[in-house]
TrEMBL record:
It comes from Trichodelitschia bisporula. This is Synaptobrevin. It is a single-pass type IV membrane protein. The lineage of its organism: Eukaryota, Fungi, Dikarya, Ascomycota, Pezizomycotina. Keywords: Coiled coil, Membrane, Protein transport, Transmembrane, Transmembrane helix, Transport. InterPro entries: Synaptobrevin-like, Synaptobrevin/VAMP, V_SNARE_CC. Its main location: membrane. The keyword Transmembrane applies. Signal peptide: none annotated. GO terms for cellular component: cytoplasm; endomembrane system; membrane.
Length: 119
């Protein structure tokens, strides 16, 4: 059995770290290859986690920009409605002035000849 002073490690062969020196070389290269693959996978996962974190930051930034844009659109809509109403009143005033001018001209054209013919 292995030395009781060392904790059990499933990656170390049963005979201990020096047991089977002839086969340890092949096992070490295989272990090293597996460790390199694990390290590569861990590196890829760290990159993925960093990318997800950056994506979350970008999404937060986009959310803030979207909120600002929505507020700006609402302000623009209010301003556009105010201008539309002002232009409607201005147009209505112009129509009233034209209608009043037409009525005055008609009164002059109709009433003046009638009053002169009575004299």
């Amino acid at each position: 059995m292995a030395d009781n002073n060392q904790p059990y490690d499933p990656y170390i062969p049963a005979g201990g770290p020096n047991a089977g020196a002839g086969t340890a070389q092949g096992g070490n290269s295989r272990t090293a290859a597996l460790q390199a693959e694990i390290d590569s996978t861990v590196g890829i996962m760290r990159d993925n986690i960093n990318k997800v974190s950056e994506r979350g930051e970008h999404l937060d930034s986009l959310q803030g920009k979207t909120d600002n844009l929505a507020q700006s659109a609402q302000g623009f809509r209010r301003g556009a409605n105010r201008v539309r109403k002002q232009m409607w009143w201005k147009d209505m005033k112009m129509r009233m002035c034209i209608a009043a001018a037409v009525i005055i001209i008609l009164v002059i054209v109709i009433v003046v000849p009638i009053t002169q013919s009575k004299k």
